């Protein structure tokens, strides 16, 4: 067992307005299964890169182990190669037989090692990289959000695999994964860093207790400070009044006074002033003890939503629907039947590649998209069940082209109905959040202007999602993935709609913001159609699940 020591660590990106880490010190053991938590943009991935030696910093990081990082980079030209040919580039001295052993533990067919990497699903790519990562000996492994974009079955495989390992840092916002796979947590709080034994739930329970104690202590100090201020002000006033009586008196009214009483009055005043001085010292101590009590308190602001009410109860109708892309042999999905009624929150659930995003594309296509923005926008339906050919006619071709850009679709086209029915209510307004954030570029101001959003309200929502004001001065391509996702969600929250369609909205979103969004959706109960593999979120939010 060895230790990794960070001593007076300070780091900021070149040209940045603020430090990511400032005079930070802590230590961790290399045989821990360490969960790494913190708000988006607090520096989790940055710290992993500092351990890898990618950036210069002040202070010191001391370690006697070799670090390895997930995910491995894959260049565009490498996508056509099988993973077996990339092993040496990913991990020096990697032995293929060890990778095959790890793949077997991941319950994955070893043939995926010899297929072109671009043909692998997100789950298969993750498993290959994890198998390579754990094929070494005595490495300390840095695992950065391994379950993003993975379906539930793949998440369960990865969860069981990581639970059997040790000697790693796991950055994840999946509460279920953190509970199953970690025995210690490293938490980047608002003003401090915690290292604590236990999994996420243990840490969260302890944090709630600490926060409750901090609130009670803060309330106690506030009351004491108020009393001391009032008492000190009163005694100071008495001292001033007493001091003013030293000189000048009416011998008729104050027959017992003489010049000799000045000394007595002065002594009395001095005693009162001494009491005032003591109270001010106590006041200073109380204020000092109060400072920092609430520094790490997480008190998310309640978000607001403006859902619209449609005149029809059934907003989306799907009957025995089979859909496919042009040029493909197999349909994306077949025989799908469900309704989305007003007030329902329907979760689309199934393996990667089963057609969930295809269905969303088809519903947006049938709703007749407006040309407002890529990424997040209000989509105004023109007709109840317009087919793709109808939408592309009568001025609809531009709309479909923009939708393809929004969906990140290839130029080969949008899904087409092979058989069945897919209808949307007339005049349906949809607020859509894409799972892809690659279209986010430029400034917040440009983003709001292009989408017709009120910039001040938009920034207020981002602040409520705990984005620092300094981020508003940066271009969005410089944001972390979690911050980009918050941009899309904030835009959706600011868009009044009949239906909110969110495709994997919580990828990269921190735990605290997930809880904040859960509370919002339970409070306002909008009509939703969503894809989300976070099992705790889906269980709390969905009123109905459509299985693919």
Explain what you see.
The protein is of the alpha/beta class. Among the domains are: 208-290; 314-547, 3-Layer(aba) Sandwich (Rossmann fold). The chain is 38% helix and 20% strand. The protein is built from 16 helices and 18 strands. The protein has helices at 44-51, 87-90, 96-105, 122-133, 152-163, 175-181, 200-244, 261-290, 356-367, 388-392, 396-407, 444-451, 455-464, 481-493, 511-524, 535-541, and strands spanning 3-11, 21-29, 33-38, 58-62, 66-70, 139-144, 168-171, 184-188, 193-197, 314-324, 333-341, 345-349, 376-380, 416-424, 429-433, 499-503, 528-531, 544-547. The strands form four sheets. Strands 5-6-7-3-8-9 form a six-stranded mixed β-sheet, with helices on both faces. It has a six-stranded mixed β-sheet with strand order 13-15-16-17-12-18, with helices on both faces. It has a three-stranded antiparallel β-sheet with strand order 2-1-4, with no helix packed on it. The radius of gyration is 31 Å and the shape is globular.
How do the strands and helices of this protein lay out in sequence?
Layout: E1 3-11, E2 21-29, E3 33-38, H1 44-51, E4 58-62, E5 66-70, H2 87-90, H3 96-105, H4 122-133, E6 139-144, H5 152-163, E7 168-171, H6 175-181, E8 184-188, E9 193-197, H7 200-244, H8 261-290, E10 314-324, E11 333-341, E12 345-349, H9 356-367, E13 376-380, H10 388-392, H11 396-407, E14 416-424, E15 429-433, H12 444-451, H13 455-464, H14 481-493, E16 499-503, H15 511-524, E17 528-531, H16 535-541, E18 544-547
Parallel strand pairs: 3-7, 3-8, 5-6, 6-7, 12-17, 12-18, 15-16, 16-17
Antiparallel strand pairs: 1-2, 1-4, 8-9, 10-11, 10-14, 13-15
Helix pairs in contact: 3-4, 7-8
């Amino acid at each position: 067992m060895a230790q990794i020591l960070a001593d007076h660590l300070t780091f900021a990106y070149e040209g940045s307005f603020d430090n990511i880490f400032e005079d930070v010190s802590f230590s961790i053991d290399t045989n821990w299964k360490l969960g790494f938590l913190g708000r988006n943009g607090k520096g989790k991935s940055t710290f992993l890169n500092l351990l890898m030696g990618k950036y210069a910093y002040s202070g010191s990081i001391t370690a006697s182990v070799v670090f390895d990082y997930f995910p491995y980079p894959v260049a565009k030209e490498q996508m056509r190669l099988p993973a077996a040919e990339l092993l040496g580039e990913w991990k020096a001295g990697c032995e293929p037989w060890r990778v095959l052993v790890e793949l077997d533990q991941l319950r994955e067919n070893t043939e995926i090692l010899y297929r072109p990497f671009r043909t692998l699903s997100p789950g298969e790519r993750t498993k290959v990289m994890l198998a390579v990562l754990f094929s070494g000996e005595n490495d300390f492994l840095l695992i950065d959000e391994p379950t993003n974009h993975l379906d539930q079955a793949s998440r369960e495989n990865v969860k069981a695999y990581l639970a059997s390992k040790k000697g790693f840092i796991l950055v994840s916002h999946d509460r279920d994964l953190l509970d199953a796979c970690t025995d210690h947590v490293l938490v980047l709080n608002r003003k401090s860093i915690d290292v604590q034994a236990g999994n996420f739930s243990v840490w969260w329970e302890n944090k709630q207790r600490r926060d409750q104690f901090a609130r009670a202590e803060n309330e106690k100090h506030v009351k004491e400070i108020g009393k001391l201020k009032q008492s000190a002000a009163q005694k100071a006033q008495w001292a001033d009044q007493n001091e003013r009586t030293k000189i000048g008196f009416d011998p008729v009214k104050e027959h017992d006074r003489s010049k000799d009483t000045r000394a007595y009055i002065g002594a009395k005043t001095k005693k009162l002033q001494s009491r005032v001085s003591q109270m001010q010292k106590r006041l200073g101590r109380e204020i000092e003890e109060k400072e920092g009590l609430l520094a790490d308190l997480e008190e998310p602001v309640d978000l607001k939503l403006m859902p619209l009410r449609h005149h029809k109860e059934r907003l989306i109708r799907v009957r025995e629907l089979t859909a496919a892309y042009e040029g493909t042999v197999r349909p994306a999905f077949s025989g799908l039947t469900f309704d989305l009624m007003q007030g329902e929150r329907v979760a689309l659930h199934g393996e990667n590649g089963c057609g969930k995003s295809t269905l969303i594309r088809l519903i947006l296509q049938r709703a007749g998209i407006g040309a407002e923005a890529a990424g997040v926008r209000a989509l105004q339906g023109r007709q109840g069940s317009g087919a793709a050919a109808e939408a592309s006619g009568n001025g609809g071709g531009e709309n479909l082209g923009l939708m393809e850009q929004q969906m990140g679709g290839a130029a080969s086209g949008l899904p087409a109905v092979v058989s069945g029915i897919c209808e949307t209510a007339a005049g349906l307004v949809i607020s859509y959040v894409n799972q892809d954030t690659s279209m986010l570029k430029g400034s917040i101001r440009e983003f709001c202007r292009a989408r017709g959003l009120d910039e001040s309200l938009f920034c207020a929502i981002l602040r409520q999602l705990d984005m620092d004001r300094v981020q508003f001065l940066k271009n969005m391509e410089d944001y972390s993935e979690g911050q980009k996702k918050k941009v899309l969600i904030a835009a959706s929250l600011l868009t009044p709609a009949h239906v909110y369609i969110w495709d994997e909205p919580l990828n990269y979103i921190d735990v605290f913001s997930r809880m904040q969004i859960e509370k919002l959706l339970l409070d306002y109960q909008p009509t939703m159609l969503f894809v989300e593999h976070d099992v705790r979120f889906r269980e709390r939010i969905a009123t109905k699940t459509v299985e693919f």
